[in-house]
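SAMPLE LOG
Freezer: B-3
Tube label: C17
Construct: single chain, 202 aa
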Amino acid sequence: MDQAIGQISAEVPDWSRERPRQFWDPGRKLLRTVRRYQVWRARGGVLGTLCCKFIALRHRFWSVVTGAEIPLTCQIGGGLLVPHPNGIVIHPDARIGVNCLIFHQVTLGSRGHGGVPEIGGHVDIGAGAKILGPVRIGAHARIGANAVVIADVAAYGVATGIHRAAGQPNGVTGVKSFGGLMNFSFRGTFIGIRLHKHEVQL
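STRUCTURE (predicted):
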């Protein structure tokens, strides 16, 4: 285990990680709208409803700026870092633990037959990774860039390439998810993916 991994908690959120560092800080400003929306929605009442409508407009603005699709109702633990939020797509039912790190072009979605990912605390997810279906990613795990994860990853584990359980098929026949367009190749076959409804079919 790297010393740096052990120093970051998988249970206690470090809210300073989400605090905007400057006026133009799109990733953190987008997360701020999610946090504030959930606070006012919980309060309810006329004022809460009005504030939610205003915050939803700000969320739309920062979503366009970043090119990310992080729904306002996402269950995200505190301390999330999204240094390059472009192309990040998160299923509204996915659960993300505290102090995680998500790079650009990451997708957390389903595989068309129910279930979405559950990400443990302090998980680092590399650029372009896709975590699909009812999988659990243990605390302090690391997901490599462009990995496709369709099976559980143990705590402190590392997943690269096509990470699947024993007995699962080798081929990827098509993928649908939420967002714009995602392309990748698998075993020499180019795959173009139009992202629509948080669904991924393997």
